[in-house]
Amino acid sequence: MDEFWKILKSQPGVGVLIVDYHGVVVYCNDQAKEIYYGRSFDPVGLTIEDVEGREFAAERLPIIQRVIDSGQPIILQHVRGGKNTEALLWPMSKAISSAPQVISITRQCMQTDESNGSYEKVNSRLIDLGPLDVLTKREIEVLALVGHGVPLKSVAVQLGVAQRTVERYRTDIARKLNINSIAEAARIVQVAGLDADAAKLPRLHRWRKDET
Predict the structure, then answer these.
(1) What angle do CA 132, 138, 144 make, to 5 degrees?
(2) Which residues, 6 or more positions from 42, have their beta carbon under 8 angstroms from its beta carbon?
(3) What is the pLDDT of residues 47-58, one digit of tens each?
(4) What is the dihedral of CA 91, 53, 207, 51, to 10 degrees?
(5) Which of 181, 161, 170 is CA-nearest to residue 136?
(6) Domains in the chain, please, with CATH?
(7) Of the candidates 74, 46, 203, the residue with the CA atom closest to the CA atom of residue 128
(8) % helix, strand, coil for the chain, step of 5
(9) Which region holds residue 18: left if phi is over 0, alpha if psi is between -120 and 50, else beta?
C-alpha cells in the first residue's frame, strides 16, 4: 500500500486531495494545488469553507458526507481554472481517532466517454472560469457556441440579437483572450468543456493563478 500511495500521489497531472467528514483538508499533493489554486497555495489544515467560501462548501460538503455515509464513490464533474475537471471521490477506511475521510483523485481536460460508467456522476452547479473570468455572461455564451462550430448567423438567432452584435462580441472575446482564430476559440471551449448554459452558472472566484 505504501508503494501504491507513492505512485498515486506522484502521477503527472493527477491531483490527490484528502478531506474529512467536516470539510477539513488533510492532504493535498502538488498537482492538486495547481489544479485547484493555480500555484503552491497549501490548504492543509483549513476547511473547504475557509479556502473556497460558503457557497462552495454548501455544495461540496454534502457530497463528501454522502460518499462517506453511503460508502459509494461519486464522480464530480466541474470547471476549475477554466478547464474541464473530473474528480473521483472515494471513501477511505476510517482511521483510529480521526474523522472519516474521502480521497479525491482529480484529472483535467477529460473526455466524457473516458469516465467509468459504474459510478454516480454529479455535475457542479458552480463554475470557476479562471482566465476566462474576464468574459461577461453573454461573451461566454458566444464563445461556447462559436467554439462548437455554430455559424454567427445561427448564434445571433439563438441569442435573439443582430449578427453585427455577435461579431462585436467575438471581437471583444478575441481581444480579452488574445486569440486570433475560430480554431483557438474551439480549443478553449474543448479544454473547458463549455456549453452555452455554463454562462448561467454562479461563478467562483477562488482560483489563485494571478494572486501574489
Answers:
(1) 60
(2) 28, 33
(3) 999 999 999 999
(4) -60
(5) 170
(6) 2-123 (3.30.450.20), 131-200 (1.10.10.10)
(7) 203
(8) 45, 20, 35
(9) beta
Q: What mean pLDDT do residues 65-74 have?
A: 96
DSSP 8-state class, residue 39:
S
Amino acid at 110: M
For residue 209, what pLDDT band results from cuts at 50, 70 and 90? very low
**For residues 25 and 47, is the Cβ–Cβ distance under 8 A?**
yes
The sign one gets for the Cα dihedral 74, 78, 80, 83 is: positive
pLDDT for 212 equals 42
- Length of the chain equals 212
Q: How high is the pLDDT of residue 5?
A: 67
